[in-house]
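Ticket #4471: structure export looks truncated?
Reporter: QA, pipeline team
Priority: medium

Steps to reproduce: submit the single chain below to the structure queue and open the exported record.
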Amino acid sequence: MRHGIGRLPIVRLDLADLRSWTAATAGGFLLYASFPPLGLWFLAPLGPALLIIAVRGRRARSAFTAGGVFGTAFLAPLILWLANLGVLPWLALTAVQAVIFALAALLLPRLTTQPGWPLYTAAWWVALEAIRGRVPLGGFPWGRLAFGQADAPYAGWAAVGGGPTLSFAVAFLGSLLVYGLTAWRDGRRPMSAAVGLGTVVLITAPLTLPAPDRSGPSAVVALVQGNAERQRTLEEQARVRGVAKNHARETKALADAVRRGDLPRPDVVLWPENSLDGDPERSPGLGSLVADSVRELNSPLLVGALLEAPGGRAYNAGQLWLPGQGPVSWYAKRQLVPFGEYIPARPLLGRFGALQLVPRDLLPGTSTDPLVAGKVWVGDVICYEIAYDDRVRDTVRAGANLLVVQTNNATYERALQAGQSEQQLAMARIRAIEYGRAVALVSTSGVSAIVAPDGQVLARLGTWRGGHLVERVPLVSGLTLSEWLGVWPEVLLAVPALVGLTLTFRRSRRTPTNPRADANRPERNKPTTNLLS
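Actual output as written to the record:
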């Protein structure tokens, strides 16, 4: 900055900074576009590629800024649906995630100075996602690279090492793109050709994996989407009633279709999260409604309920009812949503704005046991939990042969429909590939879907409509490599980032420097104006 007439400040624009910010903005937005609702999955590698271009050769301060710009351009549109709760929650969560990106980006310029740096930058992405998925307040894994890749030919990497391996593959593709173009520009054609060959292998290798085994037992699964009245304000949404009756009415329509012979009798019927607004064992009206629905179909029924818990709290639970027996088992959600299902520092924050609509903190569950309905062992995963590797892995390892995602997305779709339900379905598809199991995603107001073990959607219902889905799906009990390896792919794929940083710090200690010259050298004069340098 310098001063002109009257000592008014005149801002000197740095061309290198502008190029860096432009690349970061474009990368973040293109990564967003790879996710639903746009779903242009093939754009995903361009996100990591453009972030590398934005920070490579830059100093820490510039890398921090570029990382924050990238994170904002990516997350702000991706979670725009959160604005249905208010602009402040959307801006706050976007800002927190952007800061995490910015802090992590401080390390990227060092990693890109190492020979074979694409390995290190891909590992950096795995490490970043591991951090984002755990902190703060339990983390926010939404927007992991893997979760937008269900239609990609290389989605099978999820069956090898879960979401971390698929994310690594996407980031590695983006890194190789920059590396290969740089090698071509520098005249290193053999290296560029080798990178191209490696890219082809990375994309096509999962196509050689065996298809999920469907030769074993199967079951007829029915999903009931009763729908909820669509309201325009958050306060009105909190007062919505009649959801349970809507699901009972749609279940009767399903039973009528079965009696007519239009549909096979289901082995298990699924209602969504919050299909009941109370505890059916404490509320005679709710209990009678559920019992009548079970009799209508003479099939096991999984409902979503708020079960009473100690200390005046409640569990957000899936409760299984069997014909002639009533409620026999339940699963309580373990990964609760901060500021939605509990209020951190409630005495301080609970009196503000929409947080007053959360009257009590829910209690997290502890059990991972499947809910047994005859031959169907239901692994229940409630809403937000589908994004967490360990929550899904635990229930599969406990013996589940069918994954069920009970969810209630009415709040996030009530006015501004920005793809939240579609993003959740995309995660369910990745989980199906990861564990080789069918996944039933059942929502109060949509999207509901039945997903085959290969990630293909067999049937679906859109938002804001009632209906039911009935499909026969395989019941798979075998282990995929991903399930067997557990958390180790994430650990091992993140390690190269630490190795790369160690190497850079060791090299910097061995390299003599002139601090005064470095301090006086303008960053814009460094050879970074060529974005591929």
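Status: closed, not a bug. The export was complete when the record was re-opened. Leaving a note from the reviewer for reference: Confidence is low (pLDDT under 50) at residues 1-6, 513-531.
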